[in-house]
Amino acid sequence: MSTRRIAYAAVLAALYVVIGQFVRIPNPMVGGGAIIAINMVVVVIAGILLGPAGGALTGLVGTSLNAVFLGTGAAPYEFAAIIPHTIMGFTAGVVGRRNQLVASLTILVGHILNIIAFIIVGLMPANQMAVTIFSIGLAAEAVVDIVVIVLAVPLLRPLVREAAPA
C-alpha cells in the first residue's frame, strides 16, 4: 500500500470511530435502544475505494480504536467485531474491484461474522437469530447500510482518484 492509501485508511478509520461514538440511529424494527451501526459502512466503503488492504486496515484500526473509546456496555461487542470487520473490509476490497453494487453486499459478511463472533464469545445466545424481531431488525439495518454504501461510494470516488498519484 502506498503512503497515500494508508493515510486514506487512517482518515476512514477515524471517521469510523467518530460515527461509532456520536451517531445513534435507532433501529425502528427493534426496541430496547438498539441502533443501526452505520459506522460499519465506512469499512466497506474503504474496501471498495482503497482495495483489500485498505479495507482490512480501516476495519482493524477503526474497530479497535472504537472499542477502546466505547463505554463498558458496548465495548465487548466492538472488541468481538475487530476480526469480522477486518475480514469485511478485505472482502469489500476484493469484490469491489469487480462490481461496486455487489461489493456493497459485503456488509452482510460483517453482520454474519459479527453474530458468529458474538455467539462464540458469549455475548449473544445462539438462539437469538431465531427471534423474529432480531432478524427483522438486522435486515432493516442491512438495507440502510447498503443504501448508504451505494450512495456514498460514487460521491467519494472522485476525491480518492483526484488525490491519487499519477
CATH class division:
Mainly Alpha
Largest sheet: 2 strands, antiparallel
- Tally of DSSP helical segments: 7
Uncertain segments of ≥5 residues (pLDDT<50)?
none
CATH-defined fold name: Arp2/3 complex 21 kDa subunit ARPC3
Q: Calculate the terminal CA-CA distance, rounded to whole Å.
A: 15 Å
User: Which sequence of strands runs across the widest sheet?
Assistant: 1-2
Overall description:
It is a single chain. The chain has 166 residues and is an all-alpha fold. 36% of the residues are buried. It is 73% helix and 2% strand. The model has no long low-confidence stretch (mean pLDDT 85). The protein starts with a helix and ends with a helix. It is globular, with a radius of gyration of 15 Å. The chain contains seven helices and two strands; from the N terminus they run H-E-E-H-H-H-H-H-H. It has one domain: Arp2/3 complex 21 kDa subunit ARPC3 (Orthogonal Bundle). It has a two-stranded antiparallel ribbon with strand order 1-2.
Give a short synopsis of this structure:
This protein has 166 residues and is mainly α.
Task: Please give the structural blueprint.
Blueprint: H1 3-22, E1 25-26, E2 35-36, H2 40-69, H3 75-80, H4 82-96, H5 100-104, H6 107-120, H7 132-163
Antiparallel strand pairs: 1-2
Helix pairs in contact: 1-2, 2-4, 2-7, 4-6
Descriptive key words:
mainly alpha, two-stranded antiparallel ribbon, globular, 166 residues, 2 strands, Arp2/3 complex 21 kDa subunit ARPC3
